[in-house]
Amino acid sequence: MSTIRLIRGCGLGCLLAAGLGMAGSAALAAGAASRFGSGDEGWMASGDASSSAVTWRSTGGNPGGNIEIIDAVLGGVTFFDAPAKFLGNQLATFGQTLSFDLMQHITGNPDQFNFSDVVLSGGGLTLALDTASNPAFDAWTHYNVALSSGAWRLNDLSGAFATNAQIKTVLGSLSGLHIRAEYQTGPDTGSLDNVVLGAVPESSTAAMLALGLACLGVVARRRRG
Prior knowledge:
Elements: H1 3-28, E1 32-34, E2 44-46, E3 55-57, E4 66-70, E5 79-81, E6 97-106, E7 118-122, E8 125-129, E9 141-146, E10 153-154, H2 164-172, E11 174-180, E12 188-197, H3 203-224
Antiparallel strand pairs: 1-12, 2-5, 3-4, 4-12, 5-11, 6-9, 6-12, 7-8, 7-11, 8-10
């Protein structure tokens, strides 16, 4: 049976399946991701850094490329700042997760300190989160943070726990996403990889969407003919 005959036979069913696939993929498209395979993707440094630029490394990631910030030891706390593609209306990511990989490199003996590990801001509110542990030394640690109530606090780690309504307010007009890059008192280097906000479609999902669109086109042409 030829491809054209198969598509003609599926008719409305094919059209409906493609439409459902497109809708599902659109729902998954909320959020953003940075894998750092070919550059820093617009991420910046803030806090205790000598420059707002991060350093991109083509190797040493988890796997592949990654970005890093070297602590300038100026007395502040260094953060990785997310680019525009992670910001704006991200309300669709509520109830999903923010995941990322971190690694730290230090010289001398460990002298770790506690601080807000992830900070989200938007809608006039600031949310802060304390992860269960600091990144490993010279090895990648994976983090998976729920975008719902339970761990997020208002303003800083001493604030009240944020409600789901407050988290939705922040995600609905997200203006800042910051991941801590500094955990050591004194010189250190923080590295970041595989940041994923919400559910981002994998390449196989994108391929299914493309197939659905092709099916729609063929059906439309056959019906016109």
